[in-house]
């Protein structure tokens, strides 16, 4: 047990999928894993471990924002030995040619700040995905015929952003979408020699103000789980 995870040693798999929402973790585990067992309930942050095609997998909520994700990713890596961590979540699109429901595979994650800022101080560290996972996820998305984009995203500290000028600069520099967790996940993976990737679906569009209809959210989430699992064991 750790401060935030109630699992016994050995109850967490080396491969962990991290949706933001704990109820999505439960849905994904019950839908995609054989013999899924709940291994964490502390603070309602649900985690499940089971088998996918014979491989052990844990699907654990990360919460919203980098401070929350940092707590879970630190404990999963340092205390439970997680080695492959894949965020599955939503993002807002920032380019005209990225559509609602498209999949974005985050090659890099720019930020203004992360919980690791104190370590880097004046250095602008460049958080990036594991190339093997990224390539396998792109192959998995292509083979399923899912519209997908590979490139840079922006991990923001705020959902209700009072500085639209920052979003404009991100768009101008080719950033595909905005979310709130990937950069810190990539930094922690780099620090602990683990593999990380963020697989995201576009839930809303910052330029057109379209949003993904509620009924499409579940199926797009399922697509991300399949891409992430296929990439993890490619
Ligand atoms: N901003 C930040 N995070 C998000 C967004 C957004 O527009 N959409 C989904 N996650």
Strand order of the largest sheet: 5-8-7-6-9
Work out the number of β strands.
9
Please tally the helical runs, counting DSSP H or I stretches of 4 or more residues. 7
Ranges where pLDDT stays below 50 over 5 or more residues in a row are: none
In CATH, the topology is named Rossmann fold
Mean pLDDT: 97
Strand content: 25-35%
- Under CATH, the homologous superfamily reads Nucleoside phosphorylase domain
Tally of domains: 1
The appropriate CATH architecture is 3-Layer(aba) Sandwich
Distance between the termini: 31 Å
Helix-strand string: EHEEEHEEHHEHEHEH
The hetero compounds bound to this protein are: hypoxanthine
Give the biggest sheet: 5 strands, mixed, barrel
Q: Assign an overall shape.
A: globular
Query: Approximately how much helix is present in the residues?
Result: 25-40%
The CATH top-level class label: Alpha Beta
How large is the radius of gyration? 16 Å
General description of the model:
- This protein is α/β, with parallel strands linked by helices.
- It has one domain: Nucleoside phosphorylase domain (Rossmann fold), CATH 3.40.50.
- Helix content is 34%, strand content 28%.
- The protein contains seven helices and nine strands, in the order E-H-E-E-E-H-E-E-H-H-E-H-E-H-E-H.
- It has a five-stranded mixed β-barrel.
- Strand 7, helix 5 and strand 8 form a beta-alpha-beta unit.
- Helix 2 runs parallel beside helix 6.
- It is globular.
- The model has no long low-confidence stretch (mean pLDDT 97).
């Amino acid at each position: 047990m750790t401060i935030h995870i109630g699992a016994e040693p050995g109850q967490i798999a080396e491969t962990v999928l991290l949706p933001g929402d704990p109820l999505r973790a439960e849905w994904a585990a019950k839908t995609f894993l054989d013999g899924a067992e709940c291994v964490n309930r502390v603070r309602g942050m649900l985690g499940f471990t089971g088998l996918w095609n014979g491989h052990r997998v844990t699907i654990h909520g990360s919460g919203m924002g980098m401070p929350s994700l940092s707590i879970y990713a630190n404990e999963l890596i340092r205390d439970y030995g997680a080695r492959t961590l894949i965020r599955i979540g939503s993002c807002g699109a920032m380019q005209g040619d990225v559509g609602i429901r498209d999949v974005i595979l985050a090659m890099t994650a720019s930020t203004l700040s992360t919980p690791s800022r104190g370590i880097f101080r004046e250095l602008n560290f460049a958080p990036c995905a594991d190339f093997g996972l990224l390539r396998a996820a792109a192959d998995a998305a292509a083979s399923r015929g899912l519209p997908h984009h590979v490139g840079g995203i922006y991990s923001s500290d705020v959902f209700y952003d009072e500085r639209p000028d920052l979003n404009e600069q991100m768009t101008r520099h080719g950033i595909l979408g905005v979310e709130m967790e990937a950069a810190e996940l990539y930094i922690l993976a780099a620090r602990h020699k683990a593999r990380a990737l963020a697989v995201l679906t576009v839930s809303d569009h910052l330029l057109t103000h379209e949003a993904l209809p509620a009924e499409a959210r579940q199926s797009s989430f399922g697509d991300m789980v399949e891409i992430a699992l296929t990439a993890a064991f490619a």
